[in-house]
Amino acid sequence: ENFIFSKLYKSNACNKLGEYIGGGIKVESYACGETIFRTNMSKLFRTLESLNVKTLVLDLRDNPGGYLNEGFVLASAFAKSAMVYPKFSLKLSQNWLSSIEAMALWGEPLSDRERYKTIFKQLQAEVADGRRISTPVAAMAIAELDPLEKPFAGHLVLLTNEMCASMCDMFSAMFDKHEDTFIVGRQTMGAGGNVVEVGLSPYRKISLTQTLSMAINPYTGEFLENNGILPDELYLPTKKDLVESDADFRKFLTGFIDRL
């Protein structure tokens, strides 16, 4: 087999490897505990290798995103070498300053606390200079998460489309130039930021939203917002894909993998 099909749900990702049902590893969101998840992924990779699996397909289509920290943990589990993590430009609001100051004072572990202290000093200086948007800072104060001691040995193929957003945008960006990794499908949404509703008119019901942070592509330096990530191999779905569960896409994907 070129690749094994399995489904890895949010509800069981931290407790078991998932059931083999056909369709690639389906990552529906990003949320799970670091230690247990990385241990389970390591076991899964050894199982795949014992079955002579040469290519692993990670299905990110229609993935709306999730927590940053868990998304970075997931990326580190699939990484073949040290990852290049995106940084963020933050709106220099009191909310951000208060949150980061709290982490600088009480964050755990101590190494994170020290990183947040550096970030807080940077943001204070930029506020004093009259800036409204910060220069790039490390999200969640994460500098680097090491890949697994023994990563998956084969090719990694990511499937994306226009509904891959937020953390999914960032996940795709981290693997865009990563070794032995290929992105297939359609351009991601380009929603790599933190947009929140900050007010609602009580009579006209007009909602006011603000962008509080924007992720930066770690390879190009551009904002992910409105740009997204382009696939290495573009695929446009057919009518047959819609009525026969990706029938043409499966043939296309098999042909692509055979050429690797």
Describe the structure.
The protein has 260 residues and is α/β, with parallel strands linked by helices. The chain is 33% helix and 17% strand. The chain has seven helices and nine strands, in the order βαβαβααββαββββαα. The strands form two sheets. Strands 1-2-5-6-9 form a five-stranded parallel beta sheet, with helices on one face. Strands 4-3-8-7 form a four-stranded antiparallel beta sheet, with no helix packed on it. Helix 1 links the parallel strand 1 and strand 2. Helix 3 runs antiparallel to helix 4. It is globular and about 55 Å long. The N terminus is likely disordered.
Task: List the topology elements.
Elements: E1 25-26, H1 34-50, E2 55-59, H2 68-78, E3 87-90, H3 94-106, H4 110-128, E4 137-138, E5 155-160, H5 167-175, E6 181-185, E7 193-200, E8 207-216, E9 233-234, H6 239-243, H7 247-258
Parallel strand pairs: 1-2, 2-5, 5-6, 6-9
Antiparallel strand pairs: 3-4, 3-8, 7-8
Helix pairs in contact: 1-2, 2-5, 3-4
